[in-house]
Amino acid sequence: MAFNSFGNILRLTTFGESHGIAIGGVLDGFPAGVEIDLKAVQEELDRRKPGQSKIVTQRKEPDTVEFLSGIFEGRSTGTSIGFIIKNTNQKSKDYSHNTDVYRPSHADFTYDKKYGIRDHRGGGRSSARETANWVVAGALAKQLISHISINAYTSSVGEIEMKQEYQHLDFSKIESNDIRCPDAEMAEKMIDKIKEIRKLGDTIGGTISCVVQNMPVGLGEPIFHKLHAELGKAMLSLNAVKGFEFGSGFDGTKMKGSQHNDLFNEDGSTKTNLSGGIQGGISNGMDIYFRVAFKPVATIMQNQPTINSKGEATEIMGKGRHDPCVVPRAVPVIEALTALVLADFYLLNKTRKIS
Amino acid sequence: MAFNSFGNILRLTTFGESHGIAIGGVLDGFPAGVEIDLKAVQEELDRRKPGQSKIVTQRKEPDTVEFLSGIFEGRSTGTSIGFIIKNTNQKSKDYSHNTDVYRPSHADFTYDKKYGIRDHRGGGRSSARETANWVVAGALAKQLISHISINAYTSSVGEIEMKQEYQHLDFSKIESNDIRCPDAEMAEKMIDKIKEIRKLGDTIGGTISCVVQNMPVGLGEPIFHKLHAELGKAMLSLNAVKGFEFGSGFDGTKMKGSQHNDLFNEDGSTKTNLSGGIQGGISNGMDIYFRVAFKPVATIMQNQPTINSKGEATEIMGKGRHDPCVVPRAVPVIEALTALVLADFYLLNKTRKIS
Amino acid sequence: MAFNSFGNILRLTTFGESHGIAIGGVLDGFPAGVEIDLKAVQEELDRRKPGQSKIVTQRKEPDTVEFLSGIFEGRSTGTSIGFIIKNTNQKSKDYSHNTDVYRPSHADFTYDKKYGIRDHRGGGRSSARETANWVVAGALAKQLISHISINAYTSSVGEIEMKQEYQHLDFSKIESNDIRCPDAEMAEKMIDKIKEIRKLGDTIGGTISCVVQNMPVGLGEPIFHKLHAELGKAMLSLNAVKGFEFGSGFDGTKMKGSQHNDLFNEDGSTKTNLSGGIQGGISNGMDIYFRVAFKPVATIMQNQPTINSKGEATEIMGKGRHDPCVVPRAVPVIEALTALVLADFYLLNKTRKIS
Amino acid sequence: MAFNSFGNILRLTTFGESHGIAIGGVLDGFPAGVEIDLKAVQEELDRRKPGQSKIVTQRKEPDTVEFLSGIFEGRSTGTSIGFIIKNTNQKSKDYSHNTDVYRPSHADFTYDKKYGIRDHRGGGRSSARETANWVVAGALAKQLISHISINAYTSSVGEIEMKQEYQHLDFSKIESNDIRCPDAEMAEKMIDKIKEIRKLGDTIGGTISCVVQNMPVGLGEPIFHKLHAELGKAMLSLNAVKGFEFGSGFDGTKMKGSQHNDLFNEDGSTKTNLSGGIQGGISNGMDIYFRVAFKPVATIMQNQPTINSKGEATEIMGKGRHDPCVVPRAVPVIEALTALVLADFYLLNKTRKIS
Predict the structure, then answer these.
(1) Do the Cβ atoms of D64 and D44 come closer than 8 Å?
(2) How many domains are there within chain D?
(3) Residue B196: which region, alpha, beta or left (left: phi > 0; alpha: psi -120 to 50)?
(4) Contact by Cβ (8 Å): A16, A125
(5) pLDDT, tens only, D70-118
(6) Which is nearest to C81 in space by CA: B235, B240, B119, B113?
(7) Do A352 and C31 touch (CB under 8 A)?
C-alpha cells in the first residue's frame, strides 16, 4: 500500500510535519552510477523556498537538504537515498490559536475526523511544506533522465490567462520574473494582480502548464499505469490542485474526430499533436503538454466565521505569513513530479521487452 | 508494480484483448460475507454493452460475465474473485486490413514501438473492450459500499453542454434516454447531435459528470493516495479521457480565496461545496462531484491518410462498427471506477486509527 | 497489497477453489517478444497432475491449461497473460461429509474463523490444487530465463534420506522414477516406503532439494527483497512446507567462520560454496541450492476424532483420493516457484544501474 | 516494488550505510491514536547495540533514535513516522584497507558486480547496522500489538544446543545473561564457547528460537502472504541467516500424518501443536514458534587469502571490532521483525470480512 509512497521502481517515501523537527524522505530504486550534482538539487529547492520574492510568503526558511545515504564519492550507489530538510523557522506561536479551530477549506476538519488526532501546527502533515521533499527527489530524477527536457510555467493567475501555445514561448525566460511566466508582459499583469489581491488580504487561483520535450517513444504502462494517468495523479496530489488536462484537454471534447486525429508523418511523428504526446497511455515521442488548475489559497488575511472541534461557532483570521497565490512556488514542484513520473517509467520500460 | 492491477486492498487485475478468446480479471481483497447480487452485476454490464441503442456501435455482443471463484452460496468468501467475459462476436476480418497500418490517434503506433509486437485485431489490449472488466468489478464494489450513492451522467456532447448544477437534476432520469442525460430536453439535443455526426462518418467528444452522495467522512489516504488523486487517476485510465476536474475545477482558478472557501455549519457540513467534498485528500462528508473530458472517438468512417509499420504512406477508412460518441457507454464505466476507488478507501480506512 | 499476487515486475495473481468451476491466474509483467512453447507448459503441468503414478492420488484430472490473452502468433505481447484450468473432475460428493467438520491440521478451522464463511469442498481455496496455477506461470518464467537451469528432486521421504551432495547426482535421472529422485537405489526405497505407508492409510513427510545452475551474478534486491528471502517465502507459500534452508543451512550454525567462509578464486568464483550462491542477498554466480521440508499430508485414511463448527466432538475419516506423500508432485511446483522468483529478479536487475 | 520497504499496510522503508552520516527509516501505515513509549523504543535499541557485553563487538555506539514526525503529544497521528540514528563512531579508517578487497563470504563482491560501485566502508548498505532501523520500527509495532507476547532467545551456539521445549522455559530469564538464553546453565556453556572462539580469532554460528503467545485467530493472508511465509521472509532478510523452520520444521518431515496431525479440543484449541500455531497460512490461536539458523560471522581475526576488484590475489585480516557470534545481538532483531509482521497482519485482518 504505502500511504506515503509514490512511484513504482523509482519510489519516493516521505515524512514530516510543517512544524516538526524535520521533513524528509527516502528515494528508493534510483539506479547506481549516476553522477549527482548536489548543487543542482539545492537550486531546485531554492526555486520553491519561501521568501524568494515579493509575491510569495515572506516567511524565511533556508530549506537546506542533507543527504544521509545512497550517494558515495559523487555517484549514486543503487541503495536507498535518505534525506532530511530541517524545519528551522517553525514559529509555532503563529498557529497556537488554531489548536482547536477548523480553518475553512483546509484539511483540519478531515484530518481530525479521520485520525482522531492531528498536529495542528501549520497544517501538520497536510501542509504544502511536504512538497519540498518532492522537489529534492524530483531534482535527482531530472539528473537520471537528463536527456528529457521538462519546463513548467505559470499560464494564468485568476482571469489573466496566457493564450499563446507553448510552441511560441521561450522557456529560457521562465525564471526571469517572479511569477515564472515566459511572457514578460503577461508576467507583469499577473504580478500586479497578485499584489492587488494581497493588499485585500485575499488570495487568487491560477494554472500552470508543463511541457516535456525530447521524449522517447514507449514510456507508460497500460492498462493501469498509463503515462497521463500517473501524471494526472501526481499533479492532483499537489495541494490546492482541482483539475488536470493534457493535450486537447477539455477543449477537445467539443471537437470532431476528423479534426482531432493527429495524422502521421512518414517518420512516425504527427502533423498535429492534440494527443499531447501520449496515445493509449504510452508516449509517442511528440511533446507532452498538460495544464494544472490551482484553487486560491485557503488562508486569507480576513476574518472568517468557522467552528472548532466541539462544533462551536468561532472566528478565524490568518496569521503567519502565507502565499497570496500558490502558483509561482508550485512551478518547480510540478517539474519535480513530472520528472519522478517519467524517470519511473523510463526504468520500468527497460523490463518490457526482450532485446 | 502490477501493470494491469488497480487499487490497494481491493485490487483488480485484468487481462484480455479485444479479439482474443476472452477478457477477464481477478478482484482481490473483497471482504468475506457480502451477499452478491449476480443479476445486478450483469445489469451493469448490459448498460455498457454494444448494440444497446441507436447512438452506439451496432456491434452485437452479449457480454455475459462468468464468475469462476470467490463466491459461494451467494456470498463472497474473502478469496480472490476470478471472472471471464467471452469474446463471442470477434469478426477479426473487420480488422484484417489493419495488420500493418497505424490508425491515427489510436495506440497502434505506440504499442508497436513499445513492445515490438502487437495484437492488431480491434486494438488488442488497448481496446475499450477492457472496460467491461472494470464494470464487473465495479458492480461488486458497489455492493460492498451500498450505503454510498454514485451517479454519473452525460453533461455535454460537443458544444451542447448542460449548465445546471447537479443539485437540480433528477438522477432517476439518467437511464430514461439513450445518452444518459437526466435532462430530457438536453438529452434530445445531444442524441440529435450524435446522429448528425454519425451520418457524416465522423465522431464527437463530450463530458461526463459524476456525483457521489452519502459519503462517509474520512476516506482518502494522504500524502500519495489522496481521494481525488486516485479518482483522477482512475478516470484518466479510461480510453479517450483528456481531463479531470473536481469541485470548482478549472473555474476555481479564477476565484478569490474569500469566494472559494467553504464556510462551516456547526454540524461540520459546509455552506458551499466548492471543495467538491474533499479537503486535504480526505472526504469531508459533503457530496463529491467531478467531471471527465472525452475526446472524439479516433475511428471515423472517413478516408484518412496514414502510415504503416514500415513508415510508408497509405490510407485507412474505419470499417467494423464503432461508436460515434463514447460518452453514453462510458457512464457506467465511470461509476464502476468510482465504486472501485471508494470501496478500496473504505477498506483502507478501517486500519487508520485504533478504536 | 494483493493477497493473491506474487512477485514484483513479473507478478502472478491467482484465483480458484478446488471444486469451483475453474482455477486460473494472470501473469503480468512478462516481457514482449518471448517465443512461447505452449506444449512445454502443458508438460510441466502434467508433471504435477494427479493420477500420474502409483504413489500419488489416483484422482484423474486432465489439468489442461487454456491461455486467454497475452500471447499472439506464438510470442508474448507484453500484455497480461490470462489463463484458466477447468475443474473437470470435481466429485464434490466426496467432500459433502466435511461441510461442517474441521479436518485436523487442515485449514478448515482457520478459514472459517478468519472469514466467517468457507467453501468446504475439497479445501476450497486452501487446496494444493492452486499450485497448478503456479506451475503454469513458472513454466512461462522458465522460458523467459531459459539460460538458467533449475532442477528440483526428492531428497528424503520420512527417514530415508539421500546424503550425496548434488554435485554427484545426474539430474537427467530425476524423471526416470515416480518419486523424482535422481538416485535409482534411493528412489526405490522411497517408493517402497510410500507404498507401505499408504497401506496403513497413513501419510509421510519428506524433503525436496533444488539446485540452480548457470546463475548470472547480481540477481537479488537488498535490503528487503534478498534473493534467498524471496526464495524462502515462495517455498513457504507451498502447502505443507515447514522449513527452508539454503547453502550450509542449519548445519552451518555449527561451523566456525574459518571453516564456513568461501574463499575466492581469481575469477571471482569461490573454492567452496557454503554460501549457496548468494551473498548479501545477491547471487554471486555460484550454484544456488536449497532444501524444503514437507510435513506429512494431513488427510489420512484413518478414523480421527475432531470437532465441527459448533465445537461438538465428532469423527472424520479421509475419503476421496489423496496423496500419501506430497513430495513427488511438489517437485515441479518448487521448480516453478524458483523460476518465478528468478525471472522477477532478472527483470528487476535491468533497472539497477545505468549502463 | 520498493527495494528497501517491508510490509504492506504497516510498511517500513529504510536507508543508510554503516559509515554514512545516519541510518534511518519511515514507518508508514501506523494507525493514529497509539500512545507511544519512546523510552521503551530506546531500550529495545539498547538490547541490540554494540559494546553491551563481553561477548559482542567492543565497538561503542550510543545508537540513539531521533523521531522526526508522526508522533505528537505522546501519540501516533497516523502520518508517516520518520526517524534517524546517527552514526557517531564511524572509524572509517578501520575499513580503509578494504577499499578494493573482497572479504570472503561478505557482500563486497556481489554489491560491486551488481551496482558497479559500492560504499566499502564497513560493508556500507550490506552491514547489519541496518537492523537497528528494524528494531526501532519493531519496538513501535510491539506497542501497537501489545496484547501479543513475543519472546526470542538463543537456542544454540555451535554444537551447544538447548533441547528443552519452550514450554519448560522461563522467558523472564532471557535478559539475565549475555547470550540471552533462558537456561542459566546452557547460557554459561554458550558464553564460554564464544569466549573460546573469540580467542582463536574465529567466529561461530547458532540458532535463535522465537515464541509468540496470546495470538489471535485469523492473522495471515493466503495465498501469497501466508503468516509463516512472511515470517520466514522476514527472518531470511536478516544478515547471516541460512534457514527457517516453524512448528515441527525439518523434524516433521520424518513423521507420519497420524502422528503429526494436531487433534482438536472442543474449544478449537489443539491437543498438540506441531503446526506451530499456523494452518493454511493463518494463525489458529495456538502459540507460534519458529527457529532461525545463523551462520558464523564472516569477519574473522585471522589472515585469509582473497582477491581484489581487479581479480588479483591478496590477503585480508579482520580489523575493527566485530562480533564473534551474531546470535545474542540478533535476539531483539528477531523479535522486532516478528512484531512488524504480526502488526501488519493485524491491520490487514480488519479489512477481510464485513461485520
Answers:
(1) no
(2) 1
(3) alpha
(4) yes
(5) 999 999 999 999 999 999 866 555 555 567 899 999 999 999 999 999 9
(6) B119
(7) yes
Which one of B243, B261, B281 has the shortest CB-CB distance to A104? B261
Residue A235 DSSP SS3: helix
Q: Are B311 and A111 a contacting pair at CB < 8 A?
A: no
Name the minimum distance, in Å, from the CA of D337 to any CA of chain B. Answer: 20
Residue written as grid cell 512461462: C140
Contact D8 C14 (CB under 8 A): no
Ordered mean pLDDT values, 10 residues apiece, chain D (355 residues) = 93 96 98 98 95 87 94 97 90 62 96 95 93 98 98 98 95 97 97 96 97 98 98 98 98 98 97 98 98 97 94 86 92 98 98 92
Residue among A8, A14, A15 with most chain D CBs within 10 A, to mutate: A15
Mention every residue, 6+ apart, whose C-beta is less than 8 A from residue A341: A7, A227, A230, A231, A234
Task: Please indicate whether residue C275 or residue B100 has the higher confidence score (pLDDT).
Answer: C275
pLDDT in the model for residue B2:
86
* Domain, as residue range, for C132: 5-354
Residue B294 distance to chain C (closest CA, Å): 25
Which of A8, A24, A69 has the CB atom closest to D1's CB atom?
A: A8
Neighbours of B216 (CB within 10 A): 15
Region A40-66: what's the mean pLDDT?
Answer: 92
What distance in Å separates residue D69's CA from the closest CA in chain A? Answer: 5
CA distance D201 to C354: 41
Angstroms from B41 CA to nearest CA on chain A: 22
**pLDDT tens profile C321-353:** 789 999 999 999 999 999 999 999 999 999 999
Domain of residue D347, CATH code: 3.60.150.10
Q: Which chain B residues contact residue C118 at CB under 8 A?
A: 72, 77
For C155-162, what is the mean pLDDT? 98
Query: Is the four-CA dihedral A89, A94, A99, A105 of positive or negative sign?
Result: negative
CB D321: neighbour CB atoms within 10 A?
16
Nearest to D208 by CA among C253, C223, C292, C247: C253
Chain B residues close to A307, C-beta within 8 Å = 264-266, 268
pLDDT digits (tens, 9 = 90+) for B38-74: 999 999 999 999 888 888 888 888 899 999 999 999 9
